[in-house]
């Protein structure tokens, strides 16, 4: 299944099984994330910025830190990778540049 589309029925089954799993956790209801939503224009703009430096996108799961507006809530982090490592902007020969990592994307809305 990896690397290709899957049938809607399979996706629906996976989502239902995850929701069932989340409901059995001993976690407060307001921390039981079932999805993370991103608006298409913003995520597409970010993808266009990182595409020249990326050959893989990883969807990592994380938990919002205590200083976040929704602490303890599960979230998704979209992380650009290149050759199995977090992606970075290469230095431009003779022009300086930025060899720092590319910032992951995570500005989604948790639900429900």
How would you describe this protein?
The chain is an alpha+beta fold and 112 residues long. It has a domain at 46-112. The protein is built from two helices and five strands. It has a three-stranded antiparallel beta sheet with strand order 2-3-4, with no helix packed on it. A two-stranded antiparallel sheet has the order 1-5. β3 (74-82) and β4 (85-86) form a beta hairpin. The longest helix has 17 residues, at 8-24. The protein is globular, with a radius of gyration of 17 Å. The chain starts with 7 loop residues before the first helix and ends with a strand. 6% of the residues are buried.
What attributes characterize this protein structure?
single chain, 112 residues, alpha+beta, 3-stranded antiparallel sheet, two-stranded antiparallel sheet, 2 helices, 5 strands, 25% helix, globular
**Largest beta sheet: strand ordering:** 2-3-4
Beta-strand content bin: 15-25%
| Run of helices and strands | HEHEEEE
Distance between the termini: 27 Å
Average residue pLDDT: 86
């Amino acid at each position: 299944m990896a690397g290709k589309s899957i049938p809607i029925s399979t996706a629906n089954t996976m989502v239902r099984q995850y929701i069932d799993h989340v409901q059995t956790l001993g976690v407060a209801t307001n921390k039981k994330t079932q999805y993370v939503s991103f608006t298409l224009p913003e995520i597409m703009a970010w993808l266009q910025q990182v595409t020249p430096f990326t050959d893989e996108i990883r969807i990592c799961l994380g938990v919002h830190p205590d200083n976040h507006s929704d602490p303890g809530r599960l979230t998704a982090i979209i992380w650009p990778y290149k050759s199995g490592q977090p992606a970075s902007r290469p230095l431009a020969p003779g022009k300086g540049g930025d060899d720092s990592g590319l910032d992951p994307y995570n500005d989604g809305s948790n639900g429900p």
